[in-house]
Specification:
heterodimer; A: mainly beta; Rieske Iron-sulfur Protein; 12 strands; globular; B: alpha/beta; FAD/NAD(P)-binding domain; Enolase-like, domain 1; 7 domains; five-stranded parallel beta sheet; 28 helices; binds siroheme; binds flavin-adenine dinucleotide; binds iron/sulfur cluster; binds FE2/S2 (inorganic) cluster
Chain lengths: 119, 861
Amino acid sequence: MTTTNTEKTWRTICDSSDLVKDSGICALLANEAGNEEQIAIFHLPNSEDKIYAVGNYDPIGKANVLYRGIVGCIADEPVVASPLYKQHFSLKTGRCLQEEQSISVYPIRIENEQVQVLY
Amino acid sequence: MKTDKQLLSKAKIVVVGNGMVGHHFVEEMAKNSDYQITVLSAESRLAYDRVYLSSYFAGKTADDLALTTPEHYDELGVTFKTNAKVTNIDKSAKVVTTESGDCFEYDKLILATGSYPFVPPIPGGDVEHSLVYRTIDDLEAIQASADVSKVGVVIGGGLLGLEAAKAVKELGLETHVVEFAPQLMGVQVDGGGGRLLKTKIEELGVQVHTSKATNEIVAGDKHRYKLCFSDGTELETDLILFSAGIRPYDNLAREFDLEIGQRGGIVIDNQCKTSDADIYAIGECALWNNFIYGLVAPGYSMAKVAVKDICGEEAEFTGADMSTKLKLMGVEVGSIGDAHAKTEGSLTYTYENQPEGVYKKIVVSSDKKALLGAVLIGDTSEYDTLLQYMLNAIELPESPEGLILPMAADKPTLGVDALPDTATICSCHNVTKGDIIAAIDCGAVDVGQVKSGTKAGSGCGGCAALVKSVADNEFEKRGVEVKKDICEHFAYSRKELFDIVSVEKIKTFDELLSSHGRGLGCEICKPVAGSVLASVWNDYILKKPHLSLQDTNDTYLGNMQKDGTYSVVPRIAGGEITPDKLIVLGQVAKKYNLYTKITGGARVDLFGARVEQLPPIWKELVDAGFETGHAYGKSLRTVKSCVGSTWCRYGVQDSMSMAIDLENRYKGLRAPHKIKFGVSGCTRECAEAQGKDIGIIATENGWNLFVGGNGGMKPRHGDLFATDLDDETLVKYVDRILMFYVQTGDRLQRTSVWMDNLEGGLTYLQDVIMKDSLGITDALEEQMAAIVGSYQCEWKTTLEDPEALKRFQPFVNSDKSDSNIQFVTEREQIRPARGEEKIAVTFIPSVENDATEKEAVAEEV
Ligand code: SRM
Ligand SMILES: Cc1cc2nc3c(=O)[nH]c(=O)nc-3n(C[C@H](O)[C@H](O)[C@H](O)COP(=O)(O)OP(=O)(O)OC[C@H]3O[C@@H](n4cnc5c(N)ncnc54)[C@H](O)[C@@H]3O)c2cc1C
Ligand code: SF4
Ligand code: FES
């Protein structure tokens, strides 16, 4: 039996120097149920929130690839385009702009040059 | 008298018949929500694609052919009934009644009842295995009969008869076509064409019997039936398929007093109205100007006219062109206008090439200025151009025969403008040029809206470039300034960006965005900028400022596969490889357990590498002397070659050395799209050079150069650009042509489409390249020399750069691999596991390594 810990905490993922400007990196997390979760972290220094974290799994292409997509904006919404079939996912809401699909979004911040995600 | 309530309720429209035209009417009419539409279908299913009926035997199902679904009609708010044959029309009460007694009131009635196959009254013809070819039910009957038959005869050698013969052949029967007239397809094709068509069709194993009138059908000796012909001969068969013409379903009009033509058909006026002002007739049941159109496109036009008329808009049906282009059992057939040269004083030019089975004829006016008609058999490549000459009354060139003679030097081609409205632009969604124009008529203001309105481009996506040029061309014609903006971030075309980058000496995307763009960029403008920067400056594409611009394929220097792994394609220039290198490929593939395949580009592809495996794999390959093959880049792919004069007894030049030199010269060059070359050692053309962007064919005196060939989506043969060039001139011309393409091509535009869109076409390009009409050839050569001089193998550079290598680590915070990538074994090699074959892998913190061990792929062998 697993003890469910619903308390989410800010966990450190990597140094802020590991981020790649205008591009993505991927981190492996374990959620409270003990399952693997991959998150894509994007660094868009010219956008409002500058740093975003979303699920790495592309629900349309069905592969863990989103961090390898090109980032940018569509009508001012920051997005990543899936490298497989090019659908756009909002980095703010996780919503897919072309199809009825969405991906998870994670709160993310930089504290003392460390990238931290709340999960 | 109308009550208020009636005024409030919607006007009722009843459509009789849910064939292709009836359905088209419904779709068009449903765009206006002021009407309540009811459609009654005599068939057991809703509308389907009759034109592609034959594909049913090639594996298409009734669902594949369906043009609509009950859900779709529900969505449109359309009421429908199948198995609902209308048997009564009460014109004064405005009510129709079906066979089963259901009544429907109408304000406007549309008859779209189509036609039925004519079965000549031959004594003994009404037997069990005597069938017709019109509906899906007919196909099912044919299939059932074919299962218990060995021989099939199609009576009627017209267009539909030959389609039917194809179906019978595909069902595996010994197939015969019996035609009353002395030739096949007498309506569309002249005597000469008919003769050739017969030969070609017989070559395909179908026996053709012309000038045969069937007198009687009796029981057979060896087979089920025997056809007895008027000349005393006989033919035995098990199955008879009648395709002796069609007759309009005008019975309702006949019985309920609507005007019909002498030889049948419901008479309509230019608004598609019958003799009753509230009843319209459209499609194959309608007789306009004493003519019945047996094609869908005119039916669709009628449907549109009727819709407009009902909505109170002005519209007129003014006839339609009956020219046709089709492929019958693999034989290309084209017929345009006055194919039989019936026009007074008309003159004809004929070209016949019996060995190759090509017949072409054009019919011109007595002053040789206007094209009146044409017949093309075996090769219809000039169809679009010829049709355009006729439809738009374009004045013919000095020697009209040049239009059909092979290799004629000044053969004019007309751009996308030349495509007829019936030309299929998107084959996935069966969208024609006419549909695209209609979408624009209906208010689409940019290519995006054209695409979402017509669905064009939303299947395989391969037609995107063509859809865009057709739409842009149409916008331009309407005086709409076509925005060549590549996306919302840059109000410039690729060419304009190219000029900006080179003139303003811009070196990074950020610079370009802040000076000429807006927002953050996207997956369209970033790779374009990356490609332009690479073409102008030829920097290493993974250099920091360029890194985020590349598509994943360019970032990881491999093609991403469906499961997120990559392929590894080393360059094998000209397809020549030493046994030692071949062994290295085998060893590497074995060590990393990669799926291995010889590609269509004459080299070797290793599939299924995880990102983190790419650097070690490439390290071994680079150490063994391999370079990147740029299979991922919009850049030079392969130079396909034959062994040429070195080995081949027919070779007249050393095509192998030429191919290797060219591949090494242009490798790494970034372009609007990929570039492929072919070099053949003689005219036998084993390297298929004419199907490549740059094609080179050896002659006794040097090399012939072809430009703008393409395989893929829309194949095109290259245009003969220059002949008998020496090595040096050849390379000079290719330098100039490629650089000119790199500078002026649109995003994702292959050289073939670029050539087609180049104003002035081939002659213009020849002037620019060979006569230096723009005064730019020196600059083009210099630019190419700079690029050739600064080549680097991107993989070699990457392996030497620890920063770049960091990108190949899948996770920043773990050394594990992606557990969703799993393989199974098939034919002794790996392939990606399908969804249902995958093992769910959960992460258990204490026993981390278990997860990776569960994967079917072995990392070490
Ligand atoms: C591997 C290969 C098929 C094979 O199993 O043999 C292949 C595989 C792909 N082709 Fe191809 N094509 C391959 C030879 C061809 C050929 C044959 C040839 O080159 O002689 C053609 C037709 C010739 C031509 O291009 O004119 C061809 C016409 C296409 C097209 C259509 C291009 C067009 O202009 O219509 C695409 C789509 C595109 O590029 O937009 C395409 C795209 C692709 C992509 C890149 C699709 C994708 O984005 O995933 C495939 C990925 C390759 C990979 O994962 O490594 N491939 N492809 C062949 C690799 C050749 C090589 O050594 O580089
Ligand atoms: C094998 C084949 C290949 C073809 N190839 C081509 C081609 O390449 N290009 C081309 O342009 N055309 C082609 N055609 C012709 C094309 O299919 C027709 O022009 C088109 O289908 C006509 O559409 P329609 O709606 O007028 O008639 P139909 O599609 O025949 O539809 C009429 C419908 O009305 C129904 N109906 C009839 N009477 C009643 C009634 N009283 N009550 C209710 N329903 C009724 C019929 O059952 C039928 O379903 C081909 C036809 C066939 C059979
Ligand atoms: S093209 Fe010519 S040289 Fe090349 S293999 Fe064929 S016949 Fe030989
Ligand atoms: S999407 Fe148009 S042909 Fe495939």
